[in-house]
Amino acid sequence: MSTVGERLKTLRKLGNFKLEELASALKVTTRSIQYYESDQRNLDSKQLIALAKFFDVSVDYLLGISDEPKPIPKKSDQTDKQPGQVEMDTLLNELNEESVAELKKYAEYMKIRQTLDSGNDESSAGLDGGKASNSK
């Protein structure tokens, strides 16, 4: 089982971060980072959380409680969603506002196209400009 210091050093090296970069992010000295990596000094809870966010891993991973860098989604979270929904949620979270707006437009287009392809007429898809309701 690896120590907090070993995991910290491994993550820093995998990310190609210098001691100075990590020290700056944590607002500590480079010597403090060296102490943490060699397990000569313990991290407090705020520093653990900051490191977990910095490296995008769970605190459990840093502490050695879990060997999974990120938490595994609960089964109930996935069973409530439609197939592909988890992947779509992940993609949406990575898009900027402009891209999300474009994606919404495309989804609306696909919804209309699906309605038309299913054999319904233009009036049911709202593409007749309201003519169906006005022609009595």
Keywords:
136 residues; mainly alpha; 434 Repressor (Amino-terminal Domain); 10 helices
Question: How are the SSEs ordered, and which strands pair?
Answer:
Layout: H1 4-14, H2 19-26, H3 30-37, H4 45-55, H5 59-63, H6 75-79, H7 85-94, H8 97-117, H9 122-125, H10 131-134
Helix pairs in contact: 2-3
Strand residue content: under 5%
Q: How many strand segments?
A: 0
Helix coverage percent: 55-70%
Indicate the overall shape. Answer: elongated
Main beta sheet:
none
- Helix and strand content put the structural class at mainly alpha
CATH topology tier name of the largest domain? 434 Repressor (Amino-terminal Domain)
The total of helices stands at 10
The N- to C-terminal Cα distance equals 78 Å
Which whole number gives the mean pLDDT?
81
Order of helices and strands: HHHHHHHHHH
Counting structural domains, the number is 2
Low-confidence stretches: none
> Can you tell me the CATH superfamily of the largest domain?
lambda repressor-like DNA-binding domains
